[in-house]
Amino acid sequence: MTYHSSVTSEATEHRHADHEIDPQFLNRWSPRSFKEKPVPDEALYRLFEAARWAPSGNNEQPWRYIIARTMEDRATFLSFIAPSNAAWCSKAPVLVLVASAMINSRGAESRSHAFDAGAAWGYLALEAGRQGLIAHAMGGFERDKARETLGVPADYALHAVVAIGYRGEREALPEALQAREQPSSRKPLAELLHEGRFGASISNP
């Protein structure tokens, strides 16, 4: 199992935190190059175990995952994934559709299902990094086709497809994607924070 107690040299080259945080947050990013190497069940299930413990409104835990690991199932997923994403994620040994229940256990409309599913994805992604795996979420897929093909009920929202596996070489990607195979930076904290009301800047974030 891989665990970095410091920021990797690759992350250091492209990322800088203005305030001290755990290295896992800087080390996690979304590569596109995958090795065609299976992910053991135990390693894969740890990701979903981490996601299981994410917070959710009223502890509803609305997230659901459909996992594709066989060649047949992955081919089915590729039928509704956008070609620009299929060009690189076709090598990933695991593809996962992320959905969430729009109706809560009381039969009412859930106002937090998407927010909660996003929190669970964050837990999953961090656990993947801890284990030396990569997890890349993509929104580029045909939702209606995915719903019909996989038999997802109408009261579940479809959010993303996540490719999971071991990181491959940059050179294995199509040439157009190789330059993008590096950690991205982030907007300044001052651009993200508002104090008191929207648009009011915060001093010295």
UniProtKB/TrEMBL annotation:
Q: Sorted alphabetically, which keywords does the UniProt record give? A: Oxidoreductase
Gene3D superfamilies membership = NADH Oxidase (3.40.109.10)
Instruction: State the Pfam families in the record.
Output: Nitroreductase
Region (Disordered) residue ranges read 177-205
So which domain of life are we looking at?
Answer: Bacteria
Which InterPro entries does this entry report, sorted A to Z? Nitroreductase, Nitroreductase-like
Using the record's annotation, list all stretches that form the Nitroreductase domain.
27-80, 85-166
> Key word Acyltransferase present in the record?
no
Q: A single GO molecular function, which one?
A: oxidoreductase activity
Q: Which family does it belong to?
A: Belongs to the nitroreductase family.
Name-wise, this protein is Nitroreductase family protein
- Phylogenetic classification of the source organism: Bacteria, Bacillati, Bacillota, Bacilli, Bacillales
